[in-house]
C-alpha cells in the first residue's frame, strides 16, 4: 500500500467538481528512477529551486574534487548521497511547492494506485469540511505563528 497526501486549492466561486479536478495526489515513497536521474525528476515536477540547489551542490562537489583530489570512494559517496537526498525528499519538495501555490492539505489516503486513492478519498470527503485558514495575529510581547513562538513572553501578563 502506498500513502498519498491530498491537497486541494480553493478558488472563489468555484464548483466542487472543479476543485476535485484540480486535487493533487502526492505519493510518499522514494523512486529508483529519481535516484538514478534526480535532475530529470526535478525538471519533470518543475522544482526549479531544488534543481538549482542540486546543480550548485554538484558544482561544489566537482570543484572540491578538482581542488583536493580525494579518493574515488569519497567522490562516489558524495554523488550517491546527493542523489539519495533528492530521492528521499522529492515528495516533500512537491508538497512544499503545492503549499506555496495555494494548495491546502485535505487528507491522507492509503491505496495501491492513484485511481484507488481518488476513489477512497472522494467517497468520504466533502468540500465543506475544508478548514478555514485564518492568519495568526501578532500578540503583544512576541509574534506567534503556527507551531512556534518568537519572544520571551508571548502572552501579556497582568500582575
Description:
This protein has 159 residues and is α+β, with helices and mostly antiparallel strands. It is built from six helices and five strands; from the N terminus they run βαβααααβαββ. It has helices at 16-21, 32-36, 38-44, 48-68, 72-100, 114-124, and strands at 2-9, 24-27, 103-111, 143-145, 148-150. The strands form two sheets. The protein has a three-stranded antiparallel beta sheet with strand order 2-1-3. Strand 4 and strand 5 (148-150) form a beta hairpin.
Short description:
The protein is α+β, with helices and mostly antiparallel strands and 159 residues long. The chain is 50% helix and 17% strand. The protein contains six helices and five strands, in the order E-H-E-H-H-H-H-E-H-E-E.
Sum up the structure in keywords.
159 residues, alpha+beta, three-stranded antiparallel sheet, two-stranded antiparallel sheet, 6 helices, 50% helix, elongated
Report how far the terminal alpha carbons are from each other. Answer: 56 Å
The share of residues in helices is 40-55%
Instruction: Specify Rg, calculated over alpha carbons.
Output: 21 Å
Q: Estimate the mean pLDDT confidence.
A: 83
Unreliable stretches (pLDDT < 50, length at least 5) are none
**Which sequence of SSEs, written as H and E, runs from N to C?**
EHEHHHHEHEE
Shape: elongated
Describe the largest sheet: 3 strands, antiparallel
- Briefly note the structural class of the backbone: alpha+beta
Identify the strand order in the major beta sheet.
Answer: 2-1-3
Number of strands: 5
Q: Give the amount of beta strand, in percent.
A: 15-25%
Amino acid at each position: 500500500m502506498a500513502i498519498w497526501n491530498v491537497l486541494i486549492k480553493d478558488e472563489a466561486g468555484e464548483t466542487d467538481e472543479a476543485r476535485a479536478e484540480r486535487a493533487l495526489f502526492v505519493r510518499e515513497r522514494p523512486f529508483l528512477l529519481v535516484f538514478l536521474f534526480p535532475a530529470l525528476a526535478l525538471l519533470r515536477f518543475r522544482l526549479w529551486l531544488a534543481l538549482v540547489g542540486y546543480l550548485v551542490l554538484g558544482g561544489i562537489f566537482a570543484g572540491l574534487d578538482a581542488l583536493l583530489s580525494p579518493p574515488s570512494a569519497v567522490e562516489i559517496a558524495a554523488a550517491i548521497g546527493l542523489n539519495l537526498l533528492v530521492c528521499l525528499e522529492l515528495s516533500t519538495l512537491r508538497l512544499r511547492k503545492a503549499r506555496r501555490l495555494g494548495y491546502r492539505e485535505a487528507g491522507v489516503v492509503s491505496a495501491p494506485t492513484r485511481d484507488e486513492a481518488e476513489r477512497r478519498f472522494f467517497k468520504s470527503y466533502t468540500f465543506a469540511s475544508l478548514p478555514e485558514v485564518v492568519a495568526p495575529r501578532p500578540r503583544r510581547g512576541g509574534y506567534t505563528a503556527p507551531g512556534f513562538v518568537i519572544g520571551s513572553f508571548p502572552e501579556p501578563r497582568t500582575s
